[in-house]
Queue: 3 jobs
Job 1
Amino acid sequence: MQFLENEAYKAKLPSMLQSKDRPHIIYSWAGGVLKSQIDAGVLEDIAVPISGYKENLAPARGQCFHL
């Protein structure tokens, strides 16, 4: 696991997402940044894989990243 401060992470994330060894889990900013990552095809919809766990999460946890 690699930790980067905010600005370094923002600068490195596009390269990380374009690599063949992209991370399985990332933090992203909701809105335009997240939408552009989805449109580029570098993120995967996890709605189905987490469907069995969703009811154990507070509603706000998932709602903030819906587009």
Note: The helical segments are 6-18, 32-39, 59-63.
Job 2
Amino acid sequence: MTKANLDKVPPHYIRKQTIANGERFITPELKEMEGKILGAEERSTKLEYELFLKVREEVLQSLRPIQRSADALSQLDVLAAFADKRAAAQLLPPERRRRGTIGNPRRPSSRAGANPGGNALRAQ
């Protein structure tokens, strides 16, 4: 409310703050609502923290199985990346020959044990 209109402020209004060109007021109802909102925010923060502690405790109780799963997933991720690279390079798995040597089905004359990935790197 501006200083010029301070005389028009209802008597049940409570002065809250002085500002540069006037005063700020609240009503008892607004004060009560403010208290409810602030209280709800505090309760919400406390409940959120309690839930976090509970989840953390449950995770700690299952830590070993979670770590084993993470390890298995990381190995699977590496193997899937290898498979993607092989598919992208259109490579076939080596085949066993009668004499017990390993050959490349695309190039039957290739040396046993040659690494197609290494060959690709040398070609660059």
Note: The chain has three helices and four strands.
Job 3
Amino acid sequence: MTIVGNGKVFGDTIQNFSILPVRRVDRLAQLAGSVDPLEAIERFKAAVAKIPNVSTRTRPRSTCWT
């Protein structure tokens, strides 16, 4: 059962995720200074590709701040 408060119903946009075949996920990862960020990105992309329902039509986008 999902409970949605009155403020959310009347004052916000509600998206029904149960009808969509895929979902968007935003993830922020903090790495130690000794970790190669480009290698970490590749490892993360490989791990995400193993998750069911991950879209193969759009590539994961990654940003590296140094």
Note: DSSP finds two helices and no strands in the chain.
